[in-house]
Fold this sequence. Notes:
about 210 residues
Amino acid sequence: MVTRDDPQPASGPGREAPGDRRARLVEAAVDHVAEHGITDLSLRRLGSAIGVSHRMLIHHFGSKEQLLVEIVRASERRQRALLSRLRAEPGVSPADVARQLWRQLTDPGAAGQERLFFEICGQALRGRPEAAPVLEGLVGDWLEPLARAEAAAGASPDEARDRARLGLATVRGLLFDLLATGDRAGVDSAMEEFLRLYYGPGASGQALSNGR
């Protein structure tokens, strides 16, 4: 694919605003990482894949590390949007919504994105300034919709927030377990046990398998 710098003016009729251009590049980068992973990822290679020069990526994001942070944040937004869509489906229990989301998160094709998530979070926790923005909303952006769903199911505000935090931490912990051990059967079994504890005995459903 031929790459190019962006010759367009910053504004004007029919022109793409810089913020829109940046957002579109992030989404294209997320799609590329989802399909190809992050092995040997460079700005030059990524730019070539999504149709811009590496100089344009530096212009919009400053560095590879800052772009990776934006990829992680965009991936998290996509996951929250997916959760909202699954919850909007009629006749689907909360436990089955959780199962569907879990299957998406643990699909082998998503492993590169999940590895990137933990890698960037680790850098942020070590104090790397270019990675620090990934911590903004890392928990809070999830707690609000999760707690709202718990409150709608009858939990008190405090209980709803505690349950939301517990659910988020469990999913992320089991994702880390899967990446570290590769024990798909063990991790799926642990998720099923969590759903039974979290939602009660009636949460039993189709076993998690993801076709494997």
